């Protein structure tokens, strides 16, 4: 298998850390920019990974990072943003991370003659989606697709990603360990969670099949769950089953609004809007490259029970 010099933007985060380990195991040479080098200490032990303190939102720094690279992988995604102004489709933080940064990445890649670009978006992203998060993710895709004649582009659209260090299953596990009951907003929202290592494997596999560039892949796990089902399952696994009180729509919205006043709160109104559309793949959708999606029940107990 060919090996590449890869600029991994967003490579020190949740998905990025798993992808970095997979790509390093494959022998690729990785450059991982981060604003705080100490936040990436867990990746410094990888022999083919170099962590560089840099601001990828600075066009000049991004241009320097592109030198000598064969492939760029864009993973940056945020779940919260300041509110959009009247007439704007999404807030300024979503615009910066999901639209402006991909535009800069595409331009810098073309200036440096880099042809291969992999980008992680979001399932159900669309210009008419109910949330700023999903609308901004769609706008980021559009920016990159406008450059598809110059770039061998592959886009991945995962459902919610879970894994040992996620901010999804583990958040609910923490709440269930401390609360006597759980008032749950959007309890009937439906998800098809996908294992982080499956997502990392699909991205890595795409490097070995450059002839498949130009594709957009939806990434989902094998099963669909309501949010209530997921929370109840977590409670059962960790030995802290609690009554789950599904909130009606109006109270779900108010809970999301209240969480916006909590530092690093787990929910916002934009998250509430995102959950108005099911994060599930079309019937019959399977992972690409012959991958078989991992069942949540086969892996999640290993870390949830350990922390319970």
Question: Could you describe the 3D structure shown?
Answer:
By secondary structure, the chain is α/β, with parallel strands linked by helices. It has a domain at 5-162 and 193-221 and 278-294: Rossmann fold, CATH 3.40.50. 38% of the residues lie in helices and 16% in strands. A seven-stranded parallel β-sheet has the order 3-2-1-4-5-6-11, sandwiched between helices. Helix 1 packs across helix 6, helix 3 packs parallel to helix 4 and helix 5 crosses helix 7 (227-238). The longest helix is centred in the N-terminal third of the chain and has 20 residues, at 92-111. It is globular and about 55 Å long. The chain starts with a strand and ends with a helix. The model has no long low-confidence stretch (mean pLDDT 95).
Topology:
Layout lengths: L4 E5 L4 H12 L3 E6 L14 E5 L5 H7 L5 E4 L17 H20 L4 E5 L11 H14 L6 E7 L2 E2 L6 H10 L3 E3 L5 E2 L2 E2 H12 L8 E4 L5 E2 H12 L5 E3 L2 H11 L9 H6 L21 H12 L1
Parallel strand pairs: 1-2, 1-4, 2-3, 4-5, 5-6, 6-11, 7-10, 8-13
Antiparallel strand pairs: 9-12
Helix pairs in contact: 1-6, 3-4, 5-7
Please bin the fraction of helical residues. Answer: 25-40%
Number of helices: 10
**Order of helix and strand elements from N to C terminus:** EHEEHEHEHEEHEEEHEEHEHHH
Q: What spatial form do the alpha-carbon principal axes imply? A: globular
């Amino acid at each position: 298998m060919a090996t590449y010099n890869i600029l991994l933007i967003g490579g020190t985060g949740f998905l990025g850390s798993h992808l970095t380990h997979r790509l390093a195991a494959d022998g690729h040479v990785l450059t991982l920019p981060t604003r705080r080098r100490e936040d990436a200490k867990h990746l410094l032990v990888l022999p083919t990974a170099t962590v560089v303190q840099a601001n990828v939102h600075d066009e000049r720094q991004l241009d320097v990072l592109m030198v000598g690279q064969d492939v760029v992988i864009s993973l940056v995604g945020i779940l919260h943003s300041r509110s959009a102004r009247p007439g704007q489709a999404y807030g300024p933080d979503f615009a910066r991370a999901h639209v402006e940064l991909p535009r800069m990445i595409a331009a810098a890649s073309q200036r440096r003659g880099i042809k291969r670009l992999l980008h992680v978006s979001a399932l159900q992203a669309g210009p008419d989606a109910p949330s700023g998060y999903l609308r901004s993710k769609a706008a980021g895709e559009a920016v990159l697709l406008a450059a598809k004649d110059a770039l061998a582009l592959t886009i991945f659209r995962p459902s919610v990603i879970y894994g040992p260090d996620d901010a999804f299953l583990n958040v609910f596990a923490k709440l269930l360990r401390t609360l006597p009951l759980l008032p749950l907003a959007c309890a009937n929202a439906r998800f098809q969670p996908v294992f982080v290592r499956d997502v990392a494997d699909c991205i890595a596999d795409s490097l070995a099949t450059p002839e498949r560039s130009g594709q957009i892949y939806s990434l989902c796990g094998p099963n669909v769950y309501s949010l209530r089902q997921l929370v109840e399952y977590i409670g059962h696994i960790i030995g802290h089953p609690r009554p789950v009180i599904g909130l009606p729509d109006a109270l779900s919205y108010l809970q999301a609004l209240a969480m916006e006043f909590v530092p690093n709160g787990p929910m916002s109104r934009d998250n509430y809007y995102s959950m108005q559309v099911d994060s599930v793949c079309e019937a019959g959708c399977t992972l690409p490259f012959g991958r078989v999606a991992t069942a949540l029940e086969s892996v999640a107990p290993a870390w949830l029970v350990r922390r319970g």
